[in-house]
Amino acid sequence: MSHPDPYGSEPRGWDRPERPVALPWPEQDLDAGQWSRRPTAGPELYADPHTRPYADPNPYDEGGRTVRPDDASTRHGGPERHDEPGRYDEPGRYDGPKPFDGPVRYDDDAGYPTAQLAPIGAEIAPDPDPATEPEPPSGRRTKGRRRASVDRPATQQLGTGRAGRNLPAAIGVGLGLGALIVVPLVVYPLAFLPVLAGAVAIGMWEMARAVRRSGAHPPLVPLMAGGVLTVGLAWFAGPDALSLGLLVTVLGTMIWRLGDGPAGFQRDLTAATLIAVYVPFLAGFAALLAAAPDDGPLRILATLIAVVLSDTGGYAAGVSFGRHPMAPSISPKKSWEGFAGSVTAAALGSALLLWLMFEVAPWWGVVFGVAVSCAAVLGDLAESMIKRDLGVKDMSNLLPGHGGLMDRLDSILFAVPTAYLLLAIFVPVVN
Predict the structure, then answer these.
(1) Which of 155, 190, 228, 417 has the fewest CB atoms within 10 Å, i.e. the most exposed one?
(2) How many C-beta atoms surround the C-beta of residue 65 within 10 A?
(3) Structural domain containing residue 360
(4) Residue pLDDT, tens place only, 118-175
(5) Distance of CA 326 to the CA centre of its chain
(6) Which helix (H) or strand (E) holds 104?
C-alpha cells in the first residue's frame, strides 16, 4: 500500500503550477506582536510545563496545513490532535502506541527528577509547604557538622598542649604504670618477673603489628614465646643465659617461618630479628638488674627513677624554653633545651639517689644520671625514627595519653643496659 502524497495528486514536473509550500517553521513576515508572544530564553522559558508548546511529530496534516508552535489549538488544554481521525487510527500510518493516553500525575514516585523534565500532560504535584513540613526528631542528629550559635556554644575539645599529649591522661596512666612496677618490687620481687614478661609480650605484639605496614610479616608466636623465655633465662641464669635466649628466639623464628615458603623469607626474618633484639634482649637487662642479690629492687628502681626524671625534665624544659630543634627530621618536638633539661634533672636526681641507696659519691651519681639520660633520649629518637619510617604516629592506642606501651618502653629499653653496666662498676654485686 503506497502512502498518500502529502502534496496531493498534481503533477511533479516543471509545468506544475506554482503553489505556496507550507514550511515547518513560521513565516518570516509575521508581525512583531506574534513573535512577542513567544517565550524568550532565560530561566523562565519552561518554568511551567503547562505553557510549553506541543510539537506535533508530523508538521503536515492531510490538508497540507502547517502546524505552528504558537497555534492555540496545539497547546496543552486544546483539542487533542492525536484523537483526530486518520492520524493514528488509519491503517499503515502509525502502528505504535499513542503519545499520551491520559494525564499522568507527577510526584516523587513518578521517576522524574525535576518538574521541567515531566512530560506534557502530566499533573504536577504542588511543592511541600515549609511551614507544614514535619520537623526531624529531636533525638537524632542530622547529617553534617553543627555550627555553634548563641543557644548552643561550640563543643570544647581537650587540648593536647605543645608537647602533643593529653596531659591529664598521660599523668594518670604514668602513675598507674609506676604502681604496677613499684608494688611488686617492694612487696615480692619475684612478682616483677610476670609484669616484665607481660610488657615484653605486648611490646613485641605492637612491633610486629607496626612492621606489617612495610610488607613484612614476622611470625608472632615464636617471637612472643622466645621473648618470654629470654627474660626468664636472664632472671634465673644471668647474662650468658640472656644471649642464649636471644639465639633460641631467632632460630625458632627462622624454623617457624620456613613453613610458609620462600616468598619474603629474608624480609620477614630481618624484621623478626630486629624485634627480638629490640624488645626482649634489651628488656632482659631489667631482669638482670632486678634479680641482683640483696639490692636488686633498688637497682631497678634507681634506673627507672632516673628515666622518669629525664623524661619529666625534658618535657618541662622543652615546653617552657624549647626553641632549637634537636632532630627535626626524626622528632620535630624535641629541642636542645629539652635535652639539657633531661640531662640536668637526671644528673641531680641520680646523684642524690645513688648516695642514699648505695652510698656512692655524688659525682658518680651525676655520671650515672647523665649516661642514663643520654641513653633514654637515644632510645626515644630510635623509636621515633622507626615510626617515621613505618609511617605511624604511635605503636598503638593502648595507653591513653601515651599511645602504645612501646612508646613508654622506648627510653627504658636503651637505659637499662647502660644502668646495668655502670652499676656493675659503681656498686659491685656481692654474691
Answers:
(1) 155
(2) 11
(3) 294-431
(4) 555 555 555 555 555 555 555 555 444 455 454 555 444 444 444 455 667 777 777 8
(5) 29
(6) strand 104-106
